[in-house]
Design brief:
Structural class: mainly alpha
Largest sheet: none
Shape: flat
Amino acid sequence: MTVTMDPGLAADARRERRFFLSLSLPALFIVGLAAILPIVWIIRQSFLTTGGEYTVGNYEKVLSSGLTWSALLTTLELSFGTLAICILLGIPLALALASARPRVANVLMAFVMLPLWTSILVRTYGWLVLLRRDGLINAALTGSGLTAEPLPLVYNFTGTLIGMAHYMLPLFLLPVYAAMRDIDANLVRASASMGATLGQVIRTVVLPLSAGGIFSGSLIVFIYTIGFFITPAVLGGGKVNPLSTRIERTLSTFQDWGSASVLGILLLVLMCLIGVMFLTARRLLMRNKVGTPHA
């Protein structure tokens, strides 16, 4: 049965949509300029020499350098490692928050969001105090006899990964918790009443229904960590060099705006590719979920 809308109501709906779109046009214009103009400037700068002449030499120099691909590999390792830690810690935590009483969940969520209320620089130096050789963690480990000597927890990949995961965990948790909170509790009770164990309920009911939130949180974490600078610069101690750190050193040491712009474009292309991959995987998952026949 086809339902047709009254022509007068349809015209009113179109006028209403145009009205709200007109209200957002100034903001869209400003945001568009703020996003597009810097990218256009970086693209132009990548083709310029220090003397202002157009060339493709910047691309040849950057893309043929082993340091560039090493920085790209480090960037991907940090992003994937941070995402893995957020998934391993965030999904159980989101499940616990969604299962708790509202008052308890609100208190726990406040503690989870507490790191976002302080500066990332302050948090990074806080981890530096905790993880260094004479820091609190190594003092506790050596004092309890668990280790004979302090562990190398900072100025390396491990310390950088810890600091990045600490910052990104709340951002991953928010969409996952929202998705799990919206799951109908009757579905969980029905699964349990039919003999499903807790693990089966989580695997067959909770995780599929919260897949959208998990994908959204994963996309936020991965794209955000690709451009991380402060945490690798401080906790990495110069030994962990992702693309963002290489861009800063290219500018501060060599004043080479052309090569730095090429690195920035490489970082932007990487972010776009990762975003397309995540969105495609999510679309395929949702399509398979809709197309799955029910018994």
